[in-house]
């Protein structure tokens, strides 16, 4: 099959490269000439494990190409995927669909034969119908169908998620379009991936409902962690105790400083907005948004209280800045609330992140960056773990203690063992874990 991917950001680039690995001929299209030139040179605009090799292999095989000329990629395509950004719109929290609709109009002008136009971007319910209207209005004689095919990719594990998905959701309403989409995903039949065919609206709601539910699980266990700290319980044992119930499941029951990233914050906001417009308010989701925002702000106070009520004049070492491990994504990362609050309280912040410091430097002025985790700990009065990078779990606590001015750790990801750290002489505080009795 011949595929055009409009947008070469995170979703478009990963999806395009994976479709090429399936054996399809894929053209990734982006208006950013600099990005396209870098991709042609094999330089990735994002950090995603394994993506550079996947792209290089498929470019070499002649199945993957990059261009700024939309018409060239779309004219001969069997399917055109719209994978442009849908950021939160200022003022109301709704998804900004201007890029989607602009792409739809350009695609309409470029298609020549029957084409399936697929919304891959995360979009509110009703977007597919509007895309169809735009295409039909722009080129009344066009032979096309519109399809919704939401992505369910975890940053840091996106390639595996695409190649071995839990399911593929396809909102489609004609037999011809269904045949095209089934052919595109046919390689997944070998691993018996469930294909969920629905109408367009159902597919659009499914994406938002899935992300909102996962965000709710995270927020739920974070609130349970707060309770555990007050009553002397251990949130990890609680999570295991409830997660072994098949109706609940173990995933997304990991306490921390709150969720961030490119999906959960904007998707929960967009779902809440869309639901209010439809007179079906999602009060649970709205509460999740409020609780999560409050939690990220409260984490800085946790650090300050741990240091006796003030961090003025203290050096705070920070481990991890991205919203999660295995990505350089800083969007809505908890560090964006925590670090500025510590700076405002008079602290000097020295941070290390394995992949995110270039992006962090753009959005966190006033901090210093270290070359290693141990350098971030050097001379620190307290060390704060914000992101759960695997390499942090292998750090030598004795070496950390030797490097620090004061052996104090606030572990917002619970990567260290509290008893071991305290036995080594650290003052230690985690999330939802019993504290030593006075």
Low-confidence segments: none
Oligomer: single chain
Q: Major sheet, described briefly? A: 6 strands, parallel
How many beta-strand elements? 14
* Top-tier CATH class of the largest domain: Alpha Beta
Question: Count of helices?
Answer: 18
Please specify the SSE layout and strand pairing:
Elements: E1 2-6, H1 10-21, E2 25-29, H2 33-40, H3 51-60, E3 64-67, H4 70-74, E4 79-82, H5 98-110, E5 115-119, H6 127-138, E6 144-148, H7 158-163, E7 168-171, H8 175-184, E8 195-198, H9 200-231, H10 235-243, H11 264-277, H12 283-306, E9 315-319, H13 335-344, E10 348-352, H14 357-363, E11 368-369, H15 373-377, E12 382-385, H16 390-393, H17 397-403, E13 408-411, H18 418-423, E14 427-429
Helix pairs in contact: 1-3, 5-6, 9-11, 9-12, 11-12, 12-13
Task: Walk me through this protein's architecture.
This protein has two domains: 2-198, NAD(P)-binding Rossmann-like Domain (Rossmann fold), CATH 3.40.50; 294-429, 3-Layer(aba) Sandwich (Rossmann fold). The chain contains 18 helices and 14 strands. It has helices at residues 10-21, 33-40, 51-60, 70-74, 98-110, 127-138, 158-163, 175-184, 200-231, 235-243, 264-277, 283-306, 335-344, 357-363, 373-377, 390-393, 397-403, 418-423, and strands at 2-6, 25-29, 64-67, 79-82, 115-119, 144-148, 168-171, 195-198, 315-319, 348-352, 368-369, 382-385, 408-411, 427-429. The strands form three sheets. Strands 3-2-1-4-5-6 form a six-stranded parallel beta sheet, sandwiched between helices. Strands 11-10-9-12-13-14 form a six-stranded parallel beta sheet. The longest helix has 32 residues, at 200-231. The protein is elongated and about 75 Å long. The N and C termini lie far apart (68 Å). The mean pLDDT is 96.
